[in-house]
Amino acid sequence: MFFIANWKMFGGLNSLNSINKVLGFLKKFKSTRLAKIIYCPPNTLICPMAKKLKSTRIDVGAQNCHKSESFGAFTGSINSSMLRNVGAKYVIIGHSENRSEGENDKLINLKIKSAIKSGLKVIFCIGETLKEKRKKVTNKILNKQMSIGLKKIRNKKNIIIAYEPVWAIGTGLVPNSKDLRKTVDFIKGKNKNLKVLYGGSVNPKNINELKNIKNIDGFLIGGASQDPKKFIDIIKKTYN
Ligand code: PGA
To answer: Is residue 69 flagged as an active site residue?
Structure first.
């Protein structure tokens, strides 16, 4: 199971200490051997975090990257090879918080291709808005996001899909188990052999229900991942 911590635009150097608790927990609990933990901090923390976690089981990822893996005159941007260079192994691409800032499926496709070229593993986010859910067009939207986002990518072995309904992110809401299982099945049907994670308001309470949805391969955790106690609780309960 994957447990991916998306810190979003939170955290300074002192936040790195909070990972000590998680490292201590991993040493103690043998059942977590199967847990793959990835921290995606803001870009400013990737390098120090990767150094800190170098000989541990935890990997580091970024939250976005530029569409070009080469250097260029793009003020304020960071590309996939630069992320790899400072120790990132993963990158989240297509998060709804970036889609809402104007990132479209075509740009996401270019970013995914560039990340793969640089040797990063991609956590590709898809999800419908509340309006789309109400219109019952969830599968149509997901299909569009996947077919454009993954266009002309033949080798998908370094791609993990994260299903994150936009209406569930940061709201405390989660889809009901039946709907979620069906949607994850739909995504897996379109992408044979790819891992599919769920993200959106995962917390130590709802994990008891979410962990029983057997086709889910892990979780992308925002708010709760910034609190080591909550993050540990989520991992612990998944294996209990
Ligand atoms: P949340 O965020 O857990 O705070 O809802 C999840 C995400 O945006 O990846």
So the answer is: no
Q: Which residues of 93-132 are buried (b: 16+ CB within 10 A; e: fewer)?
A: bbbbbbbeeebebebbbebbbbbbebebbbbbbbbbbeeb
CA pair distance 236, 23, nearest whole angstrom: 13
pLDDT for 51-80, tens place per residue? 999 999 999 999 999 999 999 999 999 999
Q: Which residues of the chain have pLDDT under 50?
A: none
User: Model confidence over 24-42: pLDDT tens digits?
Assistant: 999 988 777 789 999 999 9
Q: What is the CATH number of domain 2-67+77-239?
A: 3.20.20.70
Output phi, psi for 13, to 5 deg.
-55, -35
Q: Which residues line ligand 1 (CB under 6 A)?
A: 6, 164, 169-170, 199-202, 220-224
Q: What is the reported pLDDT for 31? A: 76
Judge whether 66 counts as a catalytic residue.
Answer: no
Ligand 1 atom index nearest CA of 4: 9
- Model pLDDT, residue 237: 96
For residues 160 and 112, give the distance between their C-alpha atoms in angstroms, rounded to a whole number: 11
